[in-house]
Amino acid sequence: MTSANGTTPSQSDKVAAIDYLKRLKAGEKAERPDIHDKGMLTEIGEAEHMVSLACGDLSRLSLMYQSVSLVEIGGKPRWPLFREVVAEEESTPAGILFTAIETKPVHWLWKRRLAFGKLTALDGDPGMGKSTLLLDIIARYTTGQPMPEEEVALCGPGGVVLVMIEDDPNDTLRPRLERAGADLSRISYLGEIPAGEIEGIPYSRPFNLQTDIPLLIREVRRMQAGLVIFDPLAGLVGKASPNDSKDMYSVLNPLAAVARVMEFAVVFTRHFTKFESENSLYRGAGSMAVIGRARLGLIVTTDPDNEEVRVLANNKSNAARLAPALSYQVTDDEAAGDERAYINWLGENPHSNKELFGRGRGERQGVNRLEIFKIMESANRWMSIEEVWKILAERDEEIEYENVKKTMQRMEKSGQIKKGGARGKYGVPSVPLVPWTDELALEASP
Prior knowledge:
- The chain is α/β, with parallel strands linked by helices.
- It has helices spanning 11-25, 38-54, 58-69, 80-91, 130-143, 169-180, 213-223, 245-262, 288-293, 353-357, 359-365, 369-379, 385-395, 401-413, 438-444, and strands spanning 72-73, 76-77, 108-110, 114-115, 119-123, 159-164, 187-189, 192-198, 201-206, 225-231, 265-270, 296-303, 306-317, 326-333, 338-348, 383-384, 418-419, 425-427.
- A 9-stranded mixed beta sheet has the order 7-6-10-11-5-12-13-14-15, sandwiched between helices. Strands 16-18-17 form a 3-stranded antiparallel beta sheet. Strands 1-2 form a two-stranded antiparallel ribbon.
- Strand 10 (225-231), helix 8 and strand 11 (265-270) form a beta-alpha-beta unit.
- Helix 1 packs across helix 4.
């Protein structure tokens, strides 16, 4: 390449100029190289002008680079440096050949339920003992004990990073961990981040998945942790909306990438939505992106035959077939003077997921509220209880009028539907009185 003044620039100047153009294109702040060749300086100035026009939009900046690289004068590139930058990028493979990808088996922390390097969602209503259940798992992992229904431990002992923000670490978490027999020296509590002082009194803020991943990486390394727990997820996502798919992917994708590289298992908890669904994957609150990004899904509910018994079911697995459901109870030894809660595992539960969450369970719990809401939303008018019942009865002859009546009355009291139009008529509120989730929109769409 000959410069505008007829001289041939040094190769080192050319390398420095191209490197500067690449760094600008990548959105990096770089110091302009000490180059005096007029041709190179013209291209550098053009690149800097493009950066100002792009206003931080790297996709737009990339298109500008491609456009100017194609300009020719007399069959020669008008902007030779741009041409080389774009040509080099286009010759670099964007993907990886599978022949270069190493095959490896799934490494289980708990067979078919928790895997190293993968995200697991644990969904359930408050009061089901999700946190106590997780503390039991922590105790087993930190001491190298088998998980429930396993004869020998698949791994461990290992370290844990615990991010729980609803239970006090002093009067709840530590006592329950001690009762479960955990090795406290292997557990780091990262639920609270120091945030300063008020009148000499220190205060803290919750861990934030949008900003605190570097802290998590540091703590995982320090503890040699193989398990990280976030309880509950919705309180740890910063300014992101749990109901927005883009927000949730932006939060969970970096976490999933770090977990895969560092090979630690992640469990995060969610509460149930206000709406029942026969598909247990729709029961967790927030965007479908959350359960979609998780590779494994666990869900807790009550046993249909015994309300004193809880059930831990496996409702999603991209790594193996589903694990059998397990029964458990949250109990204590209050009679002996010990009020610390712990988990009493009761073995495999005989019910299928369909029986626990599907049509059979729906009949025990009454008419499905989401189904009623969808009927009324589709009608887009005031409807009587009898009208709704007749539509439901066409689909299921066993549905009783009184069950529909009671369900719609409960829905009206909770603000999910409202009375109006005429006596005994109900309709969907034009402005919902309760927050609607992405799952409702997904199921209601044609």
